[in-house]
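Input structure tokens:
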């Protein structure tokens, strides 16, 4: 694992174990990760309600994509296919939903309660090929830490 991920995860554990609201804890985690990882130009949580993903706490430029139907874009595809997504170049994805014209790569990691999908962590980068299996491992660990707070968003 990348050294910086271990330090970040320690800081996230401190955030989620401290007093505060679910939304405040998730927001603080998003801001911490955004600020610590240069290739994470945008990071946010989407909460699954029915067949629509709803934007929760995030860090980065504002997005107009506050509700994404299952099956649409990289985020919706992750839920429809029930698997994480790593996209090296979003320009090659036919149903890509552009949050910013500068975005080049994206990773989406599902947040689960057992087999049930609660939501997802979505990360965009302005760099082609920014994400790999180490990012997926890190974000999967993060998803496990955040899962108990998703219902409170």
């Amino acid at each position: 694992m990348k050294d910086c991920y271990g330090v970040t995860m320690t800081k996230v554990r401190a955030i989620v174990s401290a007093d505060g609201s679910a939304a405040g804890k998730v927001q603080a985690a998003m801001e911490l990760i955004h600020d610590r990882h240069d290739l994470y130009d945008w990071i946010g949580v989407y909460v699954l309600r029915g067949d629509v993903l709803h934007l929760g706490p995030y860090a980065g430029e504002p997005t107009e994509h506050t509700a994404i139907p299952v099956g649409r874009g990289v985020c919706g595809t992750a839920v429809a296919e029930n698997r994480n997504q790593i996209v090296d170049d979003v320009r090659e994805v036919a149903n890509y939903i552009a949050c910013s014209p500068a975005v080049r790569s994206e990773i989406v990691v599902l947040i689960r309660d057992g087999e049930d999908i609660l939501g997802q962590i979505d990360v965009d980068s302005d760099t082609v090929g920014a994400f790999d299996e180490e990012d997926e491992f890190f974000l999967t660990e993060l998803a496990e830490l955040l899962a108990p707070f998703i219902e409170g968003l």
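The mean pLDDT is 95. The beta strands are 42-49, 52-59, 67-69, 85-87, 105-113, 116-125.
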